[in-house]
Batch of 2 targets.
Target 1
Amino acid sequence: MTIYDMTVCIRAIGAWVIDLLAEMGRMFIFLMNAIFTVFRPPFKFRMLLRQIRFLGSKSMVVILLTGSFTGMVLALQIYYTLRKFGSEAMLGPAVALSIIRELGPVLSALMVTGRAGSALTAEIGIMKITEQIDALTSMALNPVRYLIVPNIVAALIAFPLLTAIFDLIGIYGGYFVGVKLLGLSSGTYFSQMETFLKLEDIRVGLYKSLSFGVIVSWVCCYKGYYTGYGAEGVSKSTTSAVVLSSVFILIWDYFLGTILLR
Amino acid sequence: MKKIDLEIAVGFFLLIGIFSLAYISIKMGKLEVIGGKGYTVYAQFAQSGGIKPGADIQIAGVTVGRVTGIRLDKNYEALVSFEIDEGVKLQDDSIASIKTSGLIGEKFVQISPGASEKFIAPGGTIRDTESAIDIESLLSKYAFGKI
């Protein structure tokens, strides 16, 4: 290996790190720009309403399905584990706590990423490559205000509500399996849950879903806004938006969990 | 027509979402939306033994209220405030004691009714209290033979 080969190697590493840092900086500036624009009138309520329908109302069916089956499979699995210790009475709290603290926010965020986040990136990306965003700018209309801010605010409203629906449906899914199929008494399932569940737990879930809302709308809008050239660029940025959002959600979930658990 | 569809979809989603959130917080998280459903009484304990706000208060096994706050008073005793449901009257010689459900279960407050004619007014104090039983010290007494 010559000196020249080594320089090429080092240069490649350097280029990669610089690209990464530049990308992170661009993402951060993008978010800050959006956050400053949120508080500056005029507000686009119509756009906000449209995005709430897109992110929230249309995700409800998916959330209902995943929520009920998550609760059901959780009840099934936890029941067989608890039966070994003869403490089936703890089924209610175990299902409720794991759904409200962890699975509800994370799974609903992942589902919305897959259903709405990818579509968001594709939509903004196509607007970018067909120069509609440039057209907005040339008409002195702020594209961030028209396209990005409604999405972020809509996600902040929609995510906690979707998570709440997921939680409720999941707990009743667990109730269905635990009480109707596995023969637990219905009083045990709910009374034990009320003893163990604190308002604190619900607040943790709420904080998580709010931050996931910011993450998903931020990453998906960013990826669409800075998409590459042509159809290939849009398809690439859609893929990377979904992957990056999901990875961010899971990593941030761990760190938020350690901070909030204390 | 298109406009109404949008508004109905959003409104429907918001209503269901807010309902779920409210149901979970009130039914399961015991969030107090309407205060003043009961009245407050206080009790001093020499040892509060890890009771927490939100713990149940029971008479004869029936939940009649919950603990709302714990702080240290001037005599270095724990001053615990209870919120008792409206309609449940406590005699002024009632005894409040901190109990544990099971060996390692949740702490709760049990009130044994007295026989007095007088009732404790809102904001009053339960004078007779029994501290939490410290299972560890009982065990160590047993183990080292001090009983």
Target 2
Amino acid sequence: MALAGITGGLAWGSESKEAVLERLMTLHERLVLRTAWRMLGNREDAQDAAQEVFLRLYRHLRSVEEQAAQSWLYRTTINVCYDALRRRPKTGELLVEPSLPSEAASGLEESQKRSLLEAGLRRLTPQERAVVVLCSIEGRSSAKAAEALGVSEGTVRSHLSLARTRLKEYVGRFWK
Amino acid sequence: MSDLDRELSEALAALRDEALPESALASVRAGVRERIEAGRRSRVWSTRLSLATAAAAVWLAVAIPWTAATLPLKSPRAPEVASIALSRPVVQPVQDDSKLKPAHARVEQARATVKSSPPAPPREERTQFMRIITDDPNVVILWAMNSKGETR
């Protein structure tokens, strides 16, 4: 990640604060939106969360270290998503299973597999979902995920193992 | 790793490469810019309000003492000094007979004055002396009188 003009935090030197934010948004907007989308399960909520993340980045631009910028964004995105999930009404989320052909396995199209996987992700707890998003989707190591989530590496591994077992149970009914 | 494990890992990793709609990204950017601009406008107005308040406070701090110093105070009026037009003293010739008035006559006059004064409240036995100065500086009459009015 190349962030020019950095001394300590994300110093912008001759650049305005807004210009630095624009540059950072261009670099990281996909990462933030994708993570929020997987965490929250729908586009509108993900867009709101991504906006909040970048506004927080704008406010804390001075204190964000260059090397930790990506971790900071992951951590902030996950925290913003936790807040959004907490605000969400408990009964408002309907866990509707995607309509699939009765016989499973090789007959499933990629889009159907993806729908099943997303439905399976929605059945996980927020903590399990965060670990799956960071480790299995974003490809972060357990250590990096632990750093972003503010938990121990052992906790990450434990959540990941449990989450994958539950996902396999869910999608296995259709994929096999 | 079982087939299902591998398949799950591949499917999850594939989610990372899924293209995000450009409209969603543009919406995020626009929303961020709008909220920053709104925050800036709000800050500008709050700054202006703060400055106006500070200016008003400074103005009051300066104006009130100045007004107090310059406006005439309704202080209590100084008492008017009575002015008496003094006429030129007229020197009248001294009558010789007053000088020649015998001392005992003046003593009698003084006694009459003392007698005509209101009776003094009862006092303890105490002798008062009255010194009567005569025209002659070498002659001084001392008149002793007790509280009962007995004189010597």
